[in-house]
Prior knowledge:
CATH class of the largest domain: Alpha Beta
Distance between the termini: 43 Å
Strand content: 15-25%
CATH topology of the largest domain: TIM Barrel
Organism: Aliidiomarina maris
Keywords: Flavoprotein, FMN, Iron, Iron-sulfur, Metal-binding, Oxidoreductase
Largest sheet: 8 strands, parallel, barrel
Structural class: alpha/beta
Cofactor: FMN; [4Fe-4S] cluster
Low-confidence stretches: none
Helix content: 25-40%
Shape: globular
Number of strands: 27
CATH architecture of the largest domain: Alpha-Beta Barrel
Number of domains: 3
GO molecular function, one term: FMN binding
Mean pLDDT: 96
Strand order of the largest sheet: 3-4-5-8-9-10-11-12
CATH superfamily of the largest domain: Aldolase class I
EC number: 1.3.1.34
Radius of gyration: 26 Å
Amino acid sequence: xxAPFPHMFEPLDLGFTQLKNRVLMGSMHTGLEEAKGGFDKxxxxxAARARGGVGLIVTGGISPNVRGRLTPHGSQMSHFWHIKKHxxxxxxxxxxxxxxxxxxxxAGRYAYHPLSLAPSAIKAPITPxxxxxxxxxxxxxxxxxxxxxAKKAQQAGYDGVEVMGSEGYLINQFLCTRTNKRTDKWxxxxxxxxxxxxxxxxxxRQAVGEKFIIIYRLSMIDLVEDGHNLDEVIELxxxxxxxxxxxxxxxxxxxxxxxxxxxxxxxxxxxxxxxARLKQELKVPVVACNRINTPEVAEKILASGEADMVSMARxxxxxxxxxxxxxxxxxxKINTCIACNQACLDHVFKNKRASCLVxxxxxxETELVMQPVTSAKRVAVVGxxxxxxxxxxxxxxxxxxxxxxxxxxxxxxxxxxxxxxPGKEEFHETIRYFKQRLVDTGVHVHLGQGQTAESLxxxxxxxxxxxxxxxxxxxxxxxxDLPHVLGYLDVLRDHKEVGKRVAVIGAGGIGFDxxxxxxxxxxPTLDNDEWHKIWGIDKTYSERGALLxxxxxxxxxxxxxxxxxxxxxxxxxxxxxxxxxxxSTLSKKGVRMLNGVTYRRIVPEGIEIERNGExxxxxVDNVVVCAGQLPFRPLQEALAAQGVQAHIIGGADVAAxxxxxxxxxxxxxxxxxx
Length: 674
């Protein structure tokens, strides 16, 4: 029998060292870099991925100096006392038979503090601080600081460094006329502008010698106006190779770009076409990245020659043993990243510690530990949604006898509705994973079996956990019982017919999901080329930034009003890194998003509303109610009446916007201590 994923597990010879496979753990800031005791926690975080089989790890971005920090208290590598901290990480990774590189990242105008520097004094749209233009002396000193950081990384035991040259950070700012208006030798022609990264690579190579990995993260498509063109990308790639880069990694899009690059609605492997194009021009290994989340996708990229390595960051948050599971031909056991960003990037952008919605142990490896139990208990779990599934699997893994009940015929709870939303097809993977994990951990699963207080007591359980979920909040206005009024479950669960004109009440996550569902005939996430056209990405790369002059208009079968009572911007409560994508998607389809709405009454011809002091009737065929949820816990009340205490987790505890992140973490935390 041939080995699974042979290209993925082929060693990569770099001349002076060899990588055991073609998987690179991409850079990702965790928030532990600045936390008290964070380096001890990071050491175990990275060591777990090294034990899990990753060929090469890249850390989160570390600044070469004070001005380059992302935040006022961000991490940097510039003093001798920094070396000792980082030795904790490199030692732990090497003991786990791994290799690791430090990413050097200077924020430039993306810095969230008033000391920011950039090629020119042009403020970024995503920070409140205008940078100062760098002097010639500051440019030279910054180049020195990159080399100093690399040397100290070497002294700390790192196997190499990655020079962050993409995503709109300082080096990218030097490369593009959008942000470089200089008239000296660092501005003007592209040959002048690219001297900054090339000098950094050359000076690093001089500082560290030949037997040290230098990865250059090259922005292959900027997805902003006045970005690179293809000839410049190729020229820079070749020059970086000549300057001493060992590996060229791919960067896609600036952070200020209005094109999504990693959210769940982005097709898998959406950007490997540009990596494949550059690979034709280079001799050093080239790495593909973005939305590669299964070994099957990784293998296809490598087998087709689109890249020499694949980079995955969030998939290794979701499952530290991803690589080992793939090597053991156990891909069905991988906890797949669904690219939701809710616990990783959304946390980091709020200066919180990163974790993972589907793996709450991520970045908590030293704190949320599933130790084997000393005395096994017989435990009942009612509800097979995300909270109940997480608890059941972790508790059984620890050694408890766990019985999981649900009145439905399948597991998944609210995830079964989420997976139907165009762009959220990845949610199928979480249900698939839990089905396998229930088997692996030995949970006794009882589907189609509703429970009562009496039946639970008859089961003689030592502990009862209620994960019974939520009930939709009912509308309490005149006309709410008219036949054209539907709840979101009528639409997503029961698939009732919906007319051509629709008013959606409630603009939280469910309101957006229902609006997306109602306005999409075919999910562009499942059609790579279609998705590129809709988001205005030019795969021929005939224009700067790889942007189309005119994006493709997505067909919309319905006229939809998405409404909320609040005066804030519609969708303001959605995730920081994905909310703008949802708003933009619906806006392109002509969905009318209305805030400050008072729902007066529902009438046969539609719904009567008041907004800005004006009363009007929206003539619609259906009104779909997405006005929130309430905890569903009649079992708790029945048990309490009989003097039986139960643990409440998930939506049954707090019904805030169907928060799967909180529900799964709550299940894990309870399982760790029960």
